[in-house]
Backbone:
């Protein structure tokens, strides 16, 4: 008997149970990575600047995220009297939710068979997976803009205006750079894209997989740059530039609401790293088609790829100064967008010819 | 069982609300948003009927409506910025330069 | 079950549409409109048009509304002063109710005909919605598609010319 794909129609109870387990596991792992990414970032940047970073709480400061969380939790929650109350309360949630929703379509392993059913290691496989990611990645902006507007303070407003202009400009280049991937894969489902990347490289090299980073290096670079700009990481952290705008859109926030902004920044980082790993670096598949590599379960490879991307982002933060606002706009519209369009045209030509 | 009439009723209510907003509001941007609301209610009828008639024509039309809405947003907001620069307000009652 | 879900979404859509037309502050109106767009996206998914739902969120909620909110914040618009003449409100209320009754009358009176094509929810599931839309768009509707792209190009040029300080 060949196992059947588990769905709501053939076994409703098991389906709902497995779904809940998958959601809880993915949510828990994401939150754990978020907590320890803060510690990692402080350690990595510390060592790059020949400091030690946090050392006091626990072994090499390993308990620092928990201490920070407790501290933020017990702080007084200030709401400025001149602020617009409802958007002010909604904004921190509206920035964290799109980041967490996006994780739902990331596949983290091959199908496993339990009790005669095939269970995909992915919360849900959408026919339009990549469009779903693009749609929800564009929504994180509302939290920032609302926070900036509702705080009723000039630094926050400037941060919000900067963020919206930056997001509109860079979303376009990010979307166009991904289009080149669809033209090769001819599907929008992330599950299929990962399977396609497990084939041999260009049909010749039998032990190197056909990762799209080899065929689309330009699209990969463009996606990383625009992704950094979309999640407001250095060198594109204009909306919260500490040295110019105090703290930008989150100037007026305190306590757990500030913690939500902080978590959202790292959750966004994880999402961008996971999307880049899935679309360009083969998702959960092993880097070489050798027996010993394929023995290791898929989620380990996915996490390894995500962690190395995040290390790269931290490295960038320690290396690059912040770009100026006009430089940011010029880079987005006059360099990245034409390059992405040219990449699409060239890919189209190559696909038609071969 | 949800029929196509359910969707069309919701669309009709949204369309009427959009009409009311266009007629009563004075802020040009809010009027613009009400027009978007009306366009969206029309999109809903297009898609409901397209899925009822089981062909793709309605959904392709929605794509064109979205393209028109995007073009409208770009030009309309540019007009509003230009108007605000001249008159320091975007109240539609202040757009009266052509009046005798 | 599905009907309850439908009514829930419909009530949320109409309530947030009401926020759009009643809120004093333009930003609150914009938030209401975003909420309406989300409800409509859910309707599109229920109507087996997932691609349209994704495009709805991407284009309307992700691009057009962000642009509108950007302009509202750029101009720093406050709440509008209440000095609207009441007769105007009454007449527009009557006009919009008339529109509503007219449309409802036509919906009640007209009968939708049966299926004209062969694209059922099963075809959408098996072939894929994106493929179906793409096929219709690039074969039957190629000329309108090209005209739409020219329209967008004209709009870009127009927006740049209008918003520039000196041409």
Residues:
């Amino acid at each position: 008997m060949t196992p059947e794909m588990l769905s709501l129609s053939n076994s409703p109870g098991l389906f709902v149970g497995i779904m809940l387990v998958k959601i809880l596991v993915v949510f828990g792992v994401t939150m754990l990575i978020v907590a320890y990414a803060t510690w990692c970032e402080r350690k990595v940047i510390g060592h790059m600047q020949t400091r030690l970073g946090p050392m006091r709480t626990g072994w090499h400061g390993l308990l620092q995220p928990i201490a920070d969380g407790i501290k933020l939790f017990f702080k007084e929650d200030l709401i400025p009297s001149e602020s617009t109350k409802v958007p002010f309360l909604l904004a921190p949630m509206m920035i964290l939710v799109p980041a967490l929703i996006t994780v739902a379509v990331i596949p983290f392993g091959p199908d496993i068979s339990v009790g005669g059913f095939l269970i995909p290691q992915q919360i849900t496989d959408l026919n339009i997976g990549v469009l779903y990611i693009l749609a929800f990645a564009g929504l994180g902006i509302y939290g920032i803009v609302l926070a900036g507007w509702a705080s009723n303070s000039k630094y926050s407003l400037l941060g919000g205006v900067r963020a919206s202009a930056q997001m509109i400009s860079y979303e376009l280049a990010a979307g166009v750079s991904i289009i080149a991937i669809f033209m090769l894969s001819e599907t929008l489902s992330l599950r299929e894209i990962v399977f396609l990347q497990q084939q041999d490289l260009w049909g010749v090299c039998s032990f190197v997989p056909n990762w799209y980073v080899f065929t689309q290096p330009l699209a990969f670079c463009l996606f990383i740059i625009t992704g950094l700009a979309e999640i407001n990481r250095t060198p594109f952290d204009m909306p919260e530039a500490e040295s110019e705008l105090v703290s930008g859109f989150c100037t007026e926030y305190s306590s757990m609401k500030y913690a939500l902004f902080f978590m959202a920044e790292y959750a966004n980082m994880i999402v961008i790293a996971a999307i880049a790993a899935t679309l360009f670096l083969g998702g959960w598949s092993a880097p070489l088609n050798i027996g010993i590599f394929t023995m290791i379960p898929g989620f380990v490879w996915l996490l390894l790829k995500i962690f190395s991307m995040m290390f790269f982002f931290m490295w960038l933060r320690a290396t690059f100064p912040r770009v100026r606002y006009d430089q940011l706009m010029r880079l987005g519209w006059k360099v990245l967008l034409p390059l992405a369009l040219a990449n699409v045209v060239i890919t189209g030509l190559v696909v038609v010819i071969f | 069982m949800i029929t196509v009439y359910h969707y069309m009723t919701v669309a009709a209510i949204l369309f009427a609300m959009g009409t009311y907003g266009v007629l009563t509001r004075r802020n040009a941007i809010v009027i613009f948003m009400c027009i978007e609301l009306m366009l969206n209610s029309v999109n809903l009828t297009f898609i409901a009927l397209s899925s009822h008639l089981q062909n793709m024509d309605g959904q392709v039309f929605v794509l064109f409506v979205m393209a028109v809405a995007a073009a409208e947003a770009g030009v309309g907001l540019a007009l509003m910025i230009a108007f605000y620069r001249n008159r320091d307000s975007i109240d539609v009652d202040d757009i009266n330069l052509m009046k005798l | 079950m599905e009907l309850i879900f439908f009514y829930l979404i419909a009530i949320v859509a109409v309530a947030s549409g009401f926020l759009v037309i009643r809120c004093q502050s333009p930003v609150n109106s914009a938030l209401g409109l975003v909420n309406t767009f989300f409800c409509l996206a859910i309707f599109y998914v229920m109507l087996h048009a997932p691609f349209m739902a994704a495009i709805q969120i991407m284009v309307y909620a992700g691009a057009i509304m962000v642009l509108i909110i950007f302009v509202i914040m750029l101009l720093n618009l406050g709440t509008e002063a209440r000095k609207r003449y009441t007769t105007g409100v009454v007449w527009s209320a009557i006009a919009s109710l008339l529109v509503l009754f007219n449309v409802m009358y036509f919906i009640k009176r007209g009968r939708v005909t049966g299926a004209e094509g062969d694209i059922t929810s099963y075809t959408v599931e098996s072939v894929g919605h994106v493929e179906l839309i793409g096929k219709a768009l690039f074969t039957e509707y190629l000329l309108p598609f090209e005209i739409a792209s020219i329209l967008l190009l004209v709009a870009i040029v127009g927006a740049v010319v209008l918003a520039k300080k000196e041409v």
In short: Chain B has one domain: 4-89.
